[in-house]
Amino acid sequence: MRRKTTFEERIEVVEYVVKHKHSYTEAAEHFQVSYQQARSWVLKAKNGGYEGLVDNRGHHKPESELTDLDKANLRIRQLEAELKDKELVEQFVKKFLELQHKG
């Protein structure tokens, strides 16, 4: 039953349940989505309005909206990634030199 839905489709599902007093099960069958997804969208819309239905996966906050803690965590992740890359290069060089000496 998994399928991608647009923002407008999510709004339709919410309105179908809220305005027309249909159950989550009826909405799920009518729009061919899962019961859990229909319920989740309705609850998100009730708590945060229709803006809560926007799919924000893969979108990051602009740097101006980051708190000091967010900035520090971001810097830590960057440094950890750099360290991991450096360790990979060192391992590669070590293995390369080892293979050169054998051959």
What does this protein structure show overall?
This protein has helices at 7-18, 24-31, 35-48, 68-102. With 103 residues, the chain is an all-alpha fold.
Large-scale geometry = elongated
Question: What share of the residues does DSSP label as strand, in percent?
Answer: under 5%
Mean pLDDT: 91
The figure for the number of domains is 2
- End-to-end separation in angstroms reads 57 Å
Number of strands: 0
> Strand pairing plus helix content: what structural class?
mainly alpha
**Distinct helical segment count:** 4
Order of helices and strands: HHHH
* Helical percentage: 55-70%
Q: Please compute the radius of gyration using only Cα atoms.
A: 24 Å
- Name the poorly predicted regions: none
| Largest pleated sheet | none
Short description:
This protein is mostly helical and 103 residues long.
Features:
single chain; mainly alpha; 4 helices; 2 domains; 103 residues
Reconstruct the topology from this structure.
Layout: H1 7-18, H2 24-31, H3 35-48, H4 68-102
